[in-house]
Amino acid sequence: MARHDWILDVLADLKEFALSADLPNLAEQLDDTALIALAEIASVEEGKRGQAYAKETNAGTHTGGVGTS
Question: Is residue 29 a part of any domain in this protein?
Answer without folding.
Answer: yes
